[in-house]
Each structure stands twice: as structure tokens, then as C-alpha cells.
Amino acid sequence: MLPDITQDLKRAWLVFAGAVMVVLIAVWIISDGGEAALQAKAAEGTWGDHKGPVDLRKRVELQRDANQHLRDTIESLKKASGFAIDAKRFGIPATEKQPGLLFRNREIEVRQALRQKAQPQSVQYDENVGFPDETVVPPDSEAPYLMTMLQLTERVVNIVLSSEHAPVETFEIHHFPVVETGPVTRPALLREYPLELRVRGSLHDLMWIQHALSLSEENGAHTYPLILQSWEIVSENTKPKDSINQLDAVFRVAGMQFLTPEERDHDPRAPAGRAPVGGHAPSPAPATSSNNTARP
């Protein structure tokens, strides 16, 4: 007689059916019905929109090219508006043992050349052109500043004596301390070497001088402009019927010398942690002042 296993089979099928139901319920719980796939597809489309027509590598190359173009433009502007020391005539060699005497000898040469140019025009001016008496040799520490001012003074006086109209009547030169200009909390950007020109001449002369001071090219050769900081004209022609003959004018100009990256790195206001490129930032001269403020 065979054993009755009907009940056992029924119980096995019930257990199997229950297990299948549990599995189906678990699959239903963890499944999102394709929602994740739809979200991934949408995200891929959004990424494609942000990607744009140019890949990241190309964008970086374009940015580098733009930065280099900006640097080139800045250097061109510096060259057009700034000046550099004429090392051959007004530079002081590192091996020079008497910079003060070197300046004095160079100043005498410049004075003689200006005197020869002014005599045929009968122009009255102080031949010291803003410098101390030529019998005194200045301290060696002041020589770099004085050499720079001598170069700028020679340029200004040559402009005054080269008027295309009648010669001016008189002129005089005054020097002022060098000023370092830049943001208050950042290294200075440039040094201003200011000087003042007082001249008496016709209106045509004054307008010509103003124009000549701003030129960065003369006779096809590159030169440097002197930046006009202020200009004042005084006239004694107080009545409408008075004729305009000679006018008194005051030109306040400055030579602009841009600091090198090495000089700016040695400034105490340079960002902390940036190592200097090298070299030593020379001091303009003890006789000069420094006012590191932004000019409006």
C-alpha cells in the first residue's frame, strides 16, 4: 500500500506560491517602472546642451590665447605712454664709483647744448633748468633720480625751443619728487617723475607745446610722451578790445615709468606667498617721496 502524500504536495505548492509572491512583491518595491532610465536620458540631454559646440580643451586654449592677447595689448599701451632710461646717455653703470660726479658732467654737457640752441632765439631762461648749482656735486644716492630728471628736462626744453612759430619769450623748469602710483593695498604700478614748465609765449606757441608733449613718435622714430597732469593759462587781456599778444602758461607734466614684475614682487604690498622673480628693486632716490595711492 502506497503512502498518501497529497497533503504534503499541497503544502509544498502553497510554500512555492508564497515564495513567488514574496519575490514579485520585492521586485515591484525596488523597481521604478523605468523612471530612472527616463531621468538618465533627460540628464544626458541636459549635459549635451551644456556641452556646447566647443569642448573644454578648446575653450582652455581660446582663453589662453585671449589672455596672451591682453598682455600684448597692455605692453603696447605701456610702450606708447611710458618711458625708459636712455642707458647710453643717462644710465649709471653698476661699476661706476662716483655716480654724483657722472651726473654733474652729463648735466654740464646738456646745459651747453641747450644754451647753444637757445642763444639764436634770444630766449630768456634759467640755465640751471631746475637743478642745483653746477659747482656742487650731488650725493651719489641722488644720482639715479637726477639722471632721470635730466633726461626728461632735456626733452621738455628741446620741445620749447623747437616751436614752429615765433620763439617763446621766457621759460623756467621746476622739479618735484617722484611719486609711486597704484592701488593702496597692492604693489605700485608705475613711477611718476613730475616737473613744471612755466613759459611765456603766443597762444600758437602754447598750443604747439601742448601737442608736442603728447607725441610718442617724432620724424618716424619712437619716443615717449610726457603726460599732461594740469595746464593753466594766465592772460592780462581783461578787455574785449585788448589784443592777445603773449600769454603765461604753466604745464604740469610727468614722465611715466612702469615698474617691472621684479620690482613689484619686492614691494611689501605684494601678495603673500608669491616668490620674487629675482633681482632687486632699486630705490628711486632718498631725495624723492613715495605716495602709493590710486590717482583718479
Note down, in words, how this protein is organized.
With 296 residues, the protein is α+β, with helices and mostly antiparallel strands. The chain has a domain at 71-265: Alpha-Beta Plaits. Helix content is 43%, strand content 16%. The chain is built from eight helices and eight strands. It has helices at 6-30, 35-51, 56-81, 87-90, 99-118, 143-160, 203-213, 261-265; strands at residues 124-125, 170-175, 179-181, 190-201, 217-218, 221-222, 227-234, 247-258. Strands 1, 2, 3, 4, 7 and 8 form a six-stranded mixed beta sheet that branches. Strand 5 and strand 6 (221-222) form a beta hairpin. Helix 5 (99-118) packs parallel to helix 6. The chain is elongated, with a radius of gyration of 39 Å. It starts with 5 loop residues before the first helix and ends in a 31-residue tail after the last helix.
* Rg for CA atoms: 39 Å
Query: Which of globular, elongated, flat, extended, rod-shaped describes the shape?
Result: elongated
Judged by helices, strands and strand pairing, the structural class is: alpha+beta
Uncertain spans: 273-296
What can be said about the biggest beta sheet?
A: 6 strands, mixed
Return the average pLDDT rounded to an integer.
78
> CATH-wise, what's the superfamily of the domain at 71-265?
Ribosomal protein S6/Translation elongation factor EF1B
Distance linking N and C termini: 117 Å
Order of helices and strands: HHHHHEHEEEHEEEEH
Helix content: 40-55%
Task: Please name the CATH architecture of the domain at 71-265.
Answer: 2-Layer Sandwich
SSE layout and pairing:
Elements: H1 6-30, H2 35-51, H3 56-81, H4 87-90, H5 99-118, E1 124-125, H6 143-160, E2 170-175, E3 179-181, E4 190-201, H7 203-213, E5 217-218, E6 221-222, E7 227-234, E8 247-258, H8 261-265
Parallel strand pairs: 1-2
Antiparallel strand pairs: 2-4, 3-4, 4-8, 5-6, 7-8
Helix pairs in contact: 5-6
